[in-house]
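Help needed: design a sequence for this.
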């Protein structure tokens, strides 16, 4: 929300008061004088005016989890256990998922209470790399790397996937880097070769790699560097 609008929510101040307080240098955002009422103030910024607390400033939360196979990427579900069930309830209630994984997939799962950050991590236009280990039912077709690099056409969305990079690890196992995160994207890409995906494990998203010290279901807060994505 704009800072001037936040100030106007105070029961004693109208817009003129808000602008005067800003001009007088009485408004502190995270402890620093802020005179520009047009700036966007997130829910994580502490705002004070003349010693009066206007907004406390929530703690921003950024979590990585090692999602196990069989757990649903959802906030709640009447049937299946979800990633939120693996966290303390008080923490889970504040978080949302930044980039889903299918129930049968495992690996890096990001959770946060910062909507701007999760949009940045998952926006297909920003083309952040996401790396997966993919195990297939049949041997990998020799044309796979070339066709994935050219992009695979998805008629339902009428889009062609961004060029993906494939590193062959053995006859049935590849490391695949994709640059968007469309619904069942990798399964559908291999579907073009009629080669079912039988194992899918996410290793990284942008600059964030799954910490190999995390056991399945384990989680930890991201470091400052990881948060930069
Ligand atoms: N692509 C898929 O098909 N499934 C996932 O979980 C992630 C990417």
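Sure. Designed sequence:
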């Amino acid at each position: 929300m704009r800072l001037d609008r936040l100030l106007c929510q105070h029961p004693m101040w109208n817009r003129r008061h808000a602008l005067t307080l800003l001009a007088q240098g009485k408004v502190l955002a995270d402890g620093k004088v802020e005179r520009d009422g047009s700036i966007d103030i997130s829910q994580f910024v502490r705002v004070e005016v003349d010693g009066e607390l206007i907004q406390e400033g929530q703690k921003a939360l950024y979590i990585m989890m090692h999602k196990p196979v069989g757990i649903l990427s959802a906030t709640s579900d009447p049937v299946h256990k979800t990633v939120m069930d693996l966290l303390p309830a008080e923490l889970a209630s504040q978080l949302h998922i930044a980039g889903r994984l299918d129930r049968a997939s495992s690996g890096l799962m990001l959770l946060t209470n910062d909507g701007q950050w999760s949009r940045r991590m998952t926006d297909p236009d920003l083309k952040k790399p996401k790396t997966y280990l993919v195990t297939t039912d049949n041997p990998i077709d020799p044309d796979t790397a070339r066709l994935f690099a050219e992009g695979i056409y998805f008629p339902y969305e009428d889009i062609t996937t961004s060029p993906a990079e494939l590193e062959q690890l053995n006859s049935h196992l590849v490391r695949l880097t994709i640059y968007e995160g469309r619904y069942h994207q990798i399964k559908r890409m291999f579907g073009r070769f009629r080669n079912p995906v039988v194992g899918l494990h996410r290793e990284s998203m942008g600059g964030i790699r799954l910490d190999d010290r995390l056991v399945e279901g384990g989680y930890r807060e991201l470091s400052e560097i990881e948060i930069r994505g």
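The two ends are 24 Å apart (CA to CA).
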